[in-house]
Amino acid sequence: MADDKKLTKRADDFSAWYNETVLRAELADYSPVRGCMVIRPRGYGIWERMQHQLDTVFKETGHENAYFPLLIPESFMRKEAEHVEGFAPELAVVTHGGGKKLDEPLVIRPTSETIIYAMFSKWVQSYRDLPLLINQWANVVRWEMRTRLFLRTLEFLWQEGHTAHATEAEAEEETRKMLNVYRDFMETYMAMPVITGIKTESEKFAGALRTYGCEAMMQDNKALQAGTSHNLGQNFAKAFDVKFQTEAGDVAYAWNTSWGVSTRMIGGLVMTHGDDNGLIVPPLLAPIELVIVPIWRTDEDKVRVMEAAEKIKTSLTGWERRKSGKLRIHLDNREGIKPGAKYYEWELRGVPLRLEFGPRDLDANQCVLVRRDNRVKRTVTLESIGEDVADLLSVIQTDMQVAAYERREANSVRGGISYDDFKTLMEGKGGFVYAGFCGSAKCEQEIKEETKATIRCLPDEEFRSAVAPTTCLKCGGKSVAEALWAKAY
RNA sequence: CGGGACGUAGCGCAGUCCGGUAGCGCACCUGAAUGGGGUUCAGGGGGUCGCGGGUUCGAAUCCCGCCGUCCCGACCA
Fold this sequence. Notes:
By secondary structure, the protein is α+β, with helices and mostly antiparallel strands. The protein has helices spanning 14-24, 41-60, 74-77, 81-87, 113-123, 168-188, 235-240, 264-273, 299-317, 339-348, 359-364, 385-410, 419-427, 441-451, and strands spanning 28-30, 37-39, 64-65, 71-73, 92-97, 100-108, 132-141, 155-165, 195-198, 210-217, 223-233, 243-245, 251-253, 255-262, 290-294, 320-321, 325-326, 329-331, 353-357, 366-371, 377-381, 412-413, 432-437, 454-459, 481-486. The strands form six sheets. An eleven-stranded mixed beta sheet has the order 3-7-8-14-11-10-9-24-25-23-22, with helices on both faces. Strands 18-15-19-20-21 form a five-stranded mixed beta sheet, sandwiched between helices. The radius of gyration is 25 Å and the shape is globular.
């Protein structure tokens, strides 16, 4: 931050730009503990809107919220072999309580499968108890080596859905359904298009049968896994004895799923939409959608402009829209700060629409609306201000989504790329590469070592290339699936 | 855990080589003017110089130890 006022430009140092934007837009701050962060009101406000929307859909799809404890007996973590292996390196463990060493150490949850399925085994007796559809909003702790605000912190907030079903097919349907819930949310609300698909064995959740994910492309052309959904099969049911009596009278293990999205999505939002002036929040998730900046020169003007600005705010606040509820408006009536300074400040904070209103506007019964996403100014009459603001916000939402989609496609490569060209691309600007994969973990591992790119997923059908690749990107052998390759966060 | 940089006011830094009254910019407070894209002037408040020990008449500065942060590598929503 050589110049106090200007952000580092994305093109100069994307990583520095991201950190500065998050800090200066007051989304979050560093905590006294390494790797932890404080989510500030402007960041938490976005999270609350994300939570509200997702929670609504979770309930519409039949899930109920519950809360399971933070502390998990260490022995629980050991009951599922892959699970313990996957999470052991990043566990935080409580060894003392009340001044005494504990008989059994307690793990701070890195995720709650173990405690939840232990409880499910008590609650599930009969096929009539199924499906059991539970969600919890919680914090989890994973002791990561390197951390970044929102993207990877020791503690983060998320939701984790956990379900139990009578059949494998039902569990698979649930897994896919919730993946699509995430996808819809990310596209519609975050204006962040994603590629959905299945994870390879090496990227799969520890303990799952199959893992599906949503992958978004950030402005540095790296991939961000924004949500995952797991078909757990009967792995945890067997480990925690989640059994039920079937309609026919047999005893069977339940089929489980789990799925989650976290505050990491806020990082995704920043890196999808931000520009060199700071944050840009899509209207549907913006805690403030419209900021009114009054302008005056003389004391008389100040009085009448402020009075009229208050009126505009009141009349607009009454506007109710289908998806986004009442208009969320802030009137910046601070004195002693020039309008220009306010513009920069609210732009940095990402408020999608600004209304400028001064004496000239008052006399002409008009105001100036300025879009955050493309900075286009428009003078509109106050007669129809409600419609205009609502329309513009909706257009901004759509335009942001389209822009993000077009950027992703412009940086995606399909249809035949040599391994040499692939390496060059990954050393340079990066991007999404759709290419054949022979299915061997060896090829996957070698590519990772040589280029740092990984298979983000084997994309779902609608994202696959028109002509399926026939040979493996690495070994040239027969391709068994089309893979999406990219460097990832 | 390895390599590098750093720790001085809320933030960003200078001062450290060569020991001698702790400074600058921004932010903050007061007042006046200013106000359609980052306002100006005047006045003001704020510091265990990361922590502990040592050398010295005297340490932000030299020596030893520790702690912490950031960046780069091995792990990851």
